[in-house]
Amino acid sequence: MARSNVFLLFLITFLSLVSCDSNRVFDTYKSVPNKWHKDSIVSFNIAPPDSTNAYNLFVNLRNTNAYKFSNLFLIVEMQFPHGKTVKDTLEYRMADPTGKLLGVGYTDVKENKLWYKEAVIFNETGNYIVKIQHAMRENGKVNGVEELIGITDVGFRIEHATKSN
């Protein structure tokens, strides 16, 4: 009986936290196999919410303590419905100066919500595609990190820009 009460309490708490997220418009994750290969692209197909409001865009990541770098370089590409493509190389801090991983989470899995673009208006009709791949390199080495260890999930999130985070 006690086990079912704990589960019920957890379920109610979880649902109330999720339902309070009124900023969320789009929020999904895709799992990364044991290692994120440098040529592996995580892709999201997005039907734009509307063409009149501004939205903030985020890359979401889940990582474990196996992630050994203090930063993360990503290549994020947004393909617009009518052929335009915007490609950005982004750098994010993943650990503080002591080496402690940043992010939210009580276990060894940390969740990071990383800014991508602010106040974006989806003014083209049709689906947008967002592609994300890592671009990590070790100091002093020319070739990129072939297989990045410690990233478990890559996500993409769209929020209303007019509401506070």
Summarize the topology:
Layout: H1 2-19, E1 24-31, E2 35-37, E3 42-46, E4 55-63, E5 71-79, E6 85-93, E7 110-120, E8 128-134, E9 147-149, E10 151-160
Antiparallel strand pairs: 1-10, 2-9, 3-8, 4-7, 4-10, 5-6, 5-8
**Which sequence of SSEs, written as H and E, runs from N to C?**
HEEEEEEEEEE
Write down the CATH topology.
Jelly Rolls
- Our Rg estimate from Cα atoms comes to 18 Å
Give the tally of structural domains: 1
Distance from N terminus to C terminus (CA atoms, Å) equals 39 Å
How much of the sequence lies in strands comes to: 35-45%
Low-confidence stretches: none
The overall strand count is: 10
CATH top level label: Mainly Beta
Question: What is the overall silhouette?
Answer: globular
Could you say which structural class the secondary elements and strand pairing correspond to? mainly beta
Output the number of helix runs.
1
Strand order of the largest sheet: 1-10-4-7
Q: Main β-sheet: number of strands, strand sense, barrel status?
A: 4 strands, antiparallel
Helical content (DSSP H or I, runs of 4+): 10-25%
- Architecture in CATH? Sandwich
Averaged pLDDT, please?
88
Signal peptide: 1-19
Protein name: Gliding motility protein GldH
Keywords: Signal
InterPro entries: Motility-assoc_lipoprot_GldH
